[in-house]
Each structure stands twice: as C-alpha cells, then as structure tokens.
What we know:
This protein has 1 helix and no strands.
Amino acid sequence: MNYLTKLFVAVRAQRNGQTMTEYVLILAAVAVAGMTAYTLLGGKITSEIATVTAAF
C-alpha cells in the first residue's frame, strides 16, 4: 500500500472509534436522565399505578 492509502485507512479507523465513543456517551447520558427521572418521579408513578389498580 502506498502512504496515502495507509493514511486514509488510519483516519477511517479512528473515525469508527470516535463514533462508538459518541454512542457510548449518548447512552450514558440517557441512562443518567432515566435514573434521575425515576428518582424524582418514582413515588408518584407508583402511587398512580396503585390508584389505577385499586379502581379495577
């Protein structure tokens, strides 16, 4: 392979790693947001489910 081809392959491999890292960061942010929402609203959701269940 010539130098330009090796450089292109190296840059492309680096971009794939960056993409995976970005997806992991997004997944972590969504997980933190979900846990925060559950912590803040967990009691209310549980009481609403109990209310609906008791109505049936």
